[in-house]
Task: inverse folding
């Protein structure tokens, strides 16, 4: 247990030696006698060894005031505050040992060099009792526990709420496209003005993490997520009542800003309470539900548009977000470890102050966290919040290349979303509900991808796959976690993305409907493995900076991907579905080398980064 002290300035160093006063003030108006010890101030030869004095009421009050003032002066000189760092593994016995006991004696002390007032003698004080009756730790303090130490039910609740939150965010993004034609028909405007609602959403969705995610690392995830849910409800209410395209674009921008933490932030929340070794499965569920919702939104919205009208796309989202807000308020706990530790220190320090009230405590003990040592001003915090993701993007090679990779994948996803209405409604004349059924391929593909990723991770955890060659054991033979192991599945399955794109381009028009459906399923598996690899790898390598790293890649992929529903139709019109698919698949093949590069040279790349927290992760695994 580490500690450091803060000593106020004193005039005499020897005033720190505790002394107690023995007062013998007679009743007012009576005589008192005191035997004086011989010394330099002893009475003269013609004086009596016993003296008598009469203290008047005025003199008595003056004497009491003088003693009181001197005691207060000495007390203020001698107060010492000693600070201790609170860790998750700090023993309760250490905390109780520093707390004043209920029957601690009250002792006063003065500077021994100060001249004694008349009628007082000084004797050394006895040592204080050693806390014979230990006090009880506040229950509020004990309720706050390390998120890594939560049980499976508590971690499961966090994971379920995070998955639900990302479903609502993805639904709000993708479901909008199914109502474009109905909005154009109602408002009698150009189609582009309505289509811009998609990139306006992704614009807010991509820029908000620059501020929200780093702030959540300081102020807590739950409070930021609750605020974003409230803003989503207001924005969706406005979108449901909007009467024109201009207001619709403004509300879509606001909705994108509000929905962003439900995607970019919750990945960090899962990382907050799961060790690196056990984080893969929860993040796989989170990623698969988010990707499946990208297909579920258009699927349900197609039926809503056909039977209830396009405004019900928003009303359903409003109902879903209202339920999500209730879940967060009543069931979601804060997951940010340093924020929880700071709350524990505040409770502990308040408790210590209450115990010290009315007592003379020569040394006051206070607690703080190591994170508090680096707290910044509000202006500095805002500056860091806005610049750190950009700094990561342009200085951290891992973040840069993962952002490029994720951006391409997201462009393919949104191009895929725009190509389905183009091919099956404009070319094959499907109804909105029938065309929406094509998105079942995306939903099924997302869950198949999740099962494949889980099976791959399980197989790679078998003993025959664990060796020093692939970096999954230490030199002493003990098993460890290597962040590059998160990329093995993407090395195997990422090529399914360009394969599915080419297959879709050549079978959409002249093959039975299930053939392009299979192609879309293969594309989804490829997209999912890349999406999951990005989240897992950045969370493992940047740990406490994971939200900032994820915010950087989220900005790139959403900012670029949001414009592809507009661009995709123009590309297909100009060069055709087959040629356009081949061009995009070629880029996908080139980017498939990204995970292979990191598998081979990832450890060296991370060693050159000051933010990659390999040692922190190894410590987390060791303490698991």
Result:
């Amino acid at each position: 247990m580490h500690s450091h002290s803060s000593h106020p300035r004193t005039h005499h160093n020897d005033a720190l030696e505790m002394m107690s006063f023995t007062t013998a003030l007679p009743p007012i108006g009576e005589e008192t006698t005191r035997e004086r010890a011989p010394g330099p101030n002893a009475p003269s030869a013609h004086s009596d060894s016993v003296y008598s004095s009469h203290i008047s009421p005025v003199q008595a009050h003056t004497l009491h005031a003088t003693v009181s003032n001197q005691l207060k002066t000495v007390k203020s000189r001698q107060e010492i505050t000693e600070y201790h760092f609170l860790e998750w593994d700090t023993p309760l016995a250490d905390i109780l040992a520093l707390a004043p006991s209920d029957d601690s004696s009250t002792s006063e002390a003065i500077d021994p060099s100060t001249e004694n007032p008349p009628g007082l003698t000084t004797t050394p004080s006895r040592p204080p009792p050693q806390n014979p009756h230990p006090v009880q730790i506040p229950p509020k303090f004990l309720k706050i526990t390390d998120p890594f130490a939560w049980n499976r039910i508590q971690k499961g609740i966090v994971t379920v709420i995070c998955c639900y939150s990302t479903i609502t965010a993805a639904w709000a993004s993708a479901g909008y496209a199914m109502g474009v034609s109905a909005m154009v028909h109602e408002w009698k405007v150009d189609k582009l003005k309505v289509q811009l609602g998609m990139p306006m959403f992704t614009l807010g969705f991509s820029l908000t993490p620059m501020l929200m995610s780093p702030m959540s690392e300081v102020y807590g995830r739950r409070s930021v997520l609750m605020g974003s849910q409230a803003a989503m409800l207001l924005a969706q209410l406005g979108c449901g009542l909007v009467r024109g395209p201009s207001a619709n674009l403004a509300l879509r921008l606001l909705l994108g800003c509000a929905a962003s933490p439900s995607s970019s932030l919750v990945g960090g929340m899962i990382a907050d309470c799961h060790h690196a070794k056990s984080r893969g499965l929860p993040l796989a569920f989170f990623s698969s539900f988010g990707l499946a919702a990208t297909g579920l939104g258009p699927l349900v919205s197609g039926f809503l548009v056909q039977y209830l009208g396009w405004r019900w796309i928003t009303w359903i989202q409003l109902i879903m977000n209202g339920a999500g807000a209730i879940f967060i308020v009543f069931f979601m706990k804060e997951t940010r470890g340093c924020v929880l530790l700071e709350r524990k220190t505040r409770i502990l320090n308040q408790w210590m102050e209450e115990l010290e009230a009315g007592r003379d405590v020569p040394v006051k003990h206070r607690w703080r966290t190591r994170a508090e040592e680096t707290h910044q001003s509000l202006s500095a915090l805002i500056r860091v919040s806005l610049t750190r993701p950009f700094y990561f993007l342009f200085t951290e090679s891992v973040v840069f290349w993962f952002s490029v990779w994720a951006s391409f994948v997201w462009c393919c996803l949104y191009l895929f979303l725009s190509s389905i209405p183009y091919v099956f409604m404009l070319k094959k004349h499907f109804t909105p509900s029938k065309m929406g059924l094509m998105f079942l391929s995306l939903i099924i593909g997302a869950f198949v991808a999740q099962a494949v990723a889980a099976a791959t991770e399980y197989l790679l955890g078998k003993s025959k796959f664990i060796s020093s060659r692939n970096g999954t054991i230490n030199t002493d033979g003990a098993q460890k976690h290597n962040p590059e192991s998160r990329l093995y599945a993407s090395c195997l399955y990422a090529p399914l993305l360009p394969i599915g794109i080419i297959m879709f381009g050549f079978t959409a028009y002249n093959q039975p409907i299930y053939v392009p459906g299979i192609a879309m399923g293969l594309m989804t598996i490829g997209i999912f493995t890349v999406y999951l690899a990005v989240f897992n790898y950045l969370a493992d390598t940047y740990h406490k900076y994971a939200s900032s790293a994820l915010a950087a890649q989220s900005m790139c992929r959403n900012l670029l991907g949001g414009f592809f529903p507009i661009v995709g139709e123009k590309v297909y019109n100009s060069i055709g579905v087959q040629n356009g698919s081949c061009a995009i698949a070629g880029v996908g093949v080139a980017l498939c080398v990204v995970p292979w590069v990191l598998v081979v040279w990832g450890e060296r790349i991370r060693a050159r980064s000051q933010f990659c927290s390999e040692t922190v992760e190894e410590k987390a695994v060791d303490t698991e």
Notes: Strands lie at 3-6, 19-23, 31-35, 50-54, 80-85, 120-124, 363-368. The chain has two domains: 3-34+50-126+136-143, 147-335+376-622.
